[in-house]
Amino acid sequence: MRSGPASLRPGEPDFGGRQAQDQPMADSRRFQILWLIPLAGALLAAPCAAQSSGESYLARAWKLGAKESLAITDVQLHRPIYVIVRTTSEVNQQPSSPVHPPQAPEDRDPTELKIQLSAKSELVSAENFRFLGTDNLRLWLAYTQQSHLQIFNVGNSSLFRENDFEPELILTYDNSGARSDLKLVNFGLLHQSNGEPRPDSRSWHRLYLQGGWEWGKLSLLARAWWRILEEATADDNPDITEYMGRGDLVLHWRPARDSTVGLLVRHNFRAGSGRGYGQLDWSTPLRWGRARVHVQVSAGYGESLIDYNHKQATFGVGVSFGDW
């Protein structure tokens, strides 16, 4: 359990010291509750996405070939929405970074609840880009949140181990009309942070370029990013690209109508460094109401931001929603 300021004796003056130390943690806990905000929109997106036609995955996810406008309230899935119970091979009891040395060991259980919520909505439709001489552009606002809850750790009063908040702006160029396997190009601006006070604060900003290819039931999204540098005094994780990588690949395969397989691979593009991450998600045909049984396996660095430089292997089982 994280160590905190000593309790005051009865009648002992505070002089504002303890309140000042407690305030960042109180603000952080209020910030953590924000994970509930996108829940309604994300789950509203799930049934809409599930009612998909025979469109390909990329066409459905990015409205390729469609010229009609979408209202900002037309929320749809961005990344998989799931709730799983997952366990790790190596608990990160002392998170650290080059500017934040390890603190006192934390009381963390290897098994926890992991929730991912993700949705996007169109900000600017294709018809509004016609002044540029094209109607193949769309601007999206996306939001993803991943939460790790220590629900099985009854001795720890801190329920949330980590919350990662990830808003992004995405400009999509629709290339589906061309005779090419390249179906789209995305230009993105991405922020990711965990909203924690120091020394557990982690964050970074990125610009990225992403291409999307498709061959029948198999699609590939390949992305390379550039980290927007911060002032040294404000950077809580100056070496994050060495662990979280400089790009990623996302493979999406739908072997059957009610089964989806996704593979995420990240690497720092440095030969011999051994620093990367892989995550396999399988949304199985087994259903429980609107949900499907979901299996996840991962290995490497950066399952979450607080663990960006921590190597581990995880396994989880739960449910996922929607047709991702």
Fold and architecture overview:
This protein is mainly β and 324 residues long. The chain has helices spanning 17-32, 37-50, 57-62, 240-244, and strands at residues 76-77, 81-88, 111-124, 137-149, 160-174, 182-193, 203-215, 218-228, 247-256, 259-267, 276-288, 291-301, 311-321. The protein has a single domain, classed as Phospholipase A1 (Outer membrane phospholipase (ompla), Chain C). The chain contains 4 helices and 13 strands. A 12-stranded antiparallel beta barrel has the order 2-3-4-5-6-7-8-9-10-11-12-13. The longest helix is centred in the first third of the chain and has 16 residues, at 17-32. It is globular and about 60 Å long. The model is unreliable at 1-22 and 47-51 (pLDDT under 50).
